[in-house]
Design goal:
The chain is mainly α. It is 61% helix and 0% strand. The chain is built from 10 helices and no strands. It starts with a helix and ends with a helix.
């Protein structure tokens, strides 16, 4: 049976109504050429013979209950939650490496290599020393992940709407890069205070035990603005990383 170009675009996939073992088509294939408002045009014996007034009709796509609507409040909330899960626990899990890295940067003459640095820290601070600053790491990167994933989706749509459908499609890569960079600027503003306290706790034993006492001590010694002394280097490190790869929040959300 031959189909018109219009009917080919509106019918259900061919594998649902074509037989792989026979040249004959199924009754459902014949039904797609009938008027949707004239079901009686089928023959009385149920054989599905076509009448003289055949026309194709559109078969609606199946509904997907429980799915999150794209760019809805629930979608942004799910992206934000996904960012928390993606960034907070993962950064916290590598706290020992972060402690070694920060100390190698602060005192390279004492902490000369990764292996020797682990030995020095274990000797001087014990096993618990490897996890100094895990609380500000968890909280800070959870905030960063929430802002990064949530605002990325927001700015991606916002810039696409400003550009319009034609330019949004033509310059999609640039729009996504702009959305990613904008989201990272906000995310790092949320991360920076936690990062400042974390580095001080990790590199100055005795300064504080963690976030609860380290945060007020830091503000008392350097003021509230001192929490943002490292914001520019942080932007310089993080924003290029966001340009390097797209976010996976869309796929993360639709995987639920």
């Amino acid at each position: 049976m031959a189909f018109s170009d219009n009917s080919r675009q509106s019918l259900i996939p061919s594998f649902l109504y074509y037989s792989s073992t026979s040249s004959k088509t199924l009754i459902l294939q014949k039904m797609t050429d009938l008027r949707s408002t004239h079901p009686s045009s089928l023959s009385a014996n149920g054989s599905g013979e076509l009448s003289s007034s055949n026309k194709s009709f559109v078969i609606p796509a199946p509904s997907e209950p429980g799915k999150i609507e794209l760019y809805s409040p629930q979608y942004y909330a799910a992206c934000t939650f996904g960012g928390i899960l993606a960034c907070g626990p993962t950064h916290m899990s590598v706290t020992p490496l972060d402690v070694v890295k920060c100390n190698m940067q602060i005192d390279p003459s004492k902490y000369k290599s990764i292996s020797s640095s682990f030995g020095v820290l274990l000797k001087e601070q014990g096993f618990r020393g490897f996890f100094r600053g895990w609380v500000p790491t968890l909280l800070g990167y959870s905030v960063q992940g929430a802002c990064k994933y949530g605002f990325y989706e927001f700015f991606k749509k916002y810039y696409s709407d400003i550009a319009g459908p034609e330019f949004a499609s033509k310059y999609k890569t640039l729009i996504y890069l702009a959305g990613s960079g904008s989201a990272e600027i906000i995310a790092d503003i949320g991360l920076c205070p936690f990062e400042a306290v974390k580095v001080r706790v990790q590199t100055q034993p005795g300064f504080a035990r963690g976030m609860s006492d380290g945060f007020p001590k830091f503000i008392k010694s350097e003021g509230a603005l001192g929490l943002y002394k490292g914001i520019v280097p942080l932007w310089g490190r993080q924003i290029p990383c966001e340009f390097r790869h797209p976010h996976d929040s869309f796929f993360f959300i639709h995987g639920f």
